[in-house]
Prior knowledge:
Elements: E1 2-6, E2 9-15, H1 16-19, E3 29-33, H2 38-50, E4 56-61, H3 64-72, E5 76-86, E6 92-97, E7 100-102, E8 105-107, H4 114-126, E9 132-145, E10 151-162, E11 176-182, H5 184-189, H6 196-206
Amino acid sequence: MYKIYINGTPLFLASTEEAGGRPSADDRNIVTRYMGNSKLLLSYMDMLEKNPRFDSVTIFAEDADRLFRDFAGQFRIIEAAGGVAYNPKGEVLLIFKRDHWDLPKGKIDEGESREDAALREVLEETGLSAAVLGEYLGVTYHTYRDQKGRRILKYSYWYRMKAENETLKPQAEENIEHAEWREPRAFLESNPVVYGNIRDLLVRELNG
Length: 208
């Protein structure tokens, strides 16, 4: 199953079997079968971009991977990488940017590996002098419109990292206002303004 955030709302692209485990359709959750018509995908993209009132949309087909390829084909793809970095006290490294809490990440440069990009972005955005790359945690997806109005689907690849409890220096040129070490459970329980895919990633980390 694929989970893509569109304007803060999760869109699930699922196999028929996976869709059976999703919530039933109601006035807050849409569940629909994909019959191979990409216009259906475009209509739901438009709806979610303009209307944030739904809790979720689930589109399902026998082949979820093919469904995702059809969906991704409507977008320009950008790949990014970032890190869930912990200090020796178990605090996680967070940044505050554009009125949301986030994890440090950024676009993968041409010829750069995902791992190298993740480390580089964490150091650049937070002022850390060094971090140790750990295991790969997976990929998250979200969409947005660029300055030319084009639809962008961003793949963000995440890695666990370890770092010392250094003084942080947020990257001002990237409009990062704060970089802080925070205890992850207390952070989530404080009901912060945080992107859905970042919350999902932190919750997954807490639950092991």
